Amino acid sequence: MRGTSIANRLFVSAAILSAIILFVSGVVLNAIYRRTTVAAFDERLNVYLKELVADLSAPTEQERSEMGNVGEPRFNLQGSGWYWEVTRADGTPVKASRSLFGLTLPKLGENVPLELFQPWRRGYVTLEDRRLRTIERPVDLGEDGQFLIVVAAESSEVDTDIAEFQLALGLTFLLLGAALVGSTLV
Length: 186
Fold this sequence. Notes:
- The protein is of the alpha+beta class.
- It is 46% helix and 20% strand.
- It contains 3 helices and 5 strands, in the order H-H-E-E-E-E-E-H.
- The chain has a 5-stranded antiparallel beta sheet with strand order 2-1-5-4-3.
- Helix 1 runs antiparallel to helix 3.
- The radius of gyration is 25 Å and the shape is elongated.
- The two termini are 20 Å apart.
């Protein structure tokens, strides 16, 4: 670069600096989007989890027998990728969504700690080659015993949203980078 003009050096340095700034901005925006998308999906699962906790802690046996009517039709379709399950603390099944069709949901277990200030665990498990986003909550009903409630849904919905965002962000930043380099050149 010693023999090149100052204009060429300024152009190259501006192009490199623009590329670095756009790359770092893209990584940060992608991380923020990923975190908020997964958090929104977890909140959706948490709504169903709270419904199941309320059904389980219902005062009468008749109300408990109606457990699982959470308003999401995919819990009733076999192989839909949306599942819930209630087990006793010892692993004995109590009730499960129709979509499980005799299967058992893998548990996150004690190796995933309870969330700070929240009574649940979140993470990923695999069921029949499907990656599921899972949220589980231990519930203590006193004399009635201790239970574990698990709600899981196929994570491909979240993964697809994130991939579409990454593509749009990449194309946008590529065009922005080209515009910056073009304007610097002019």
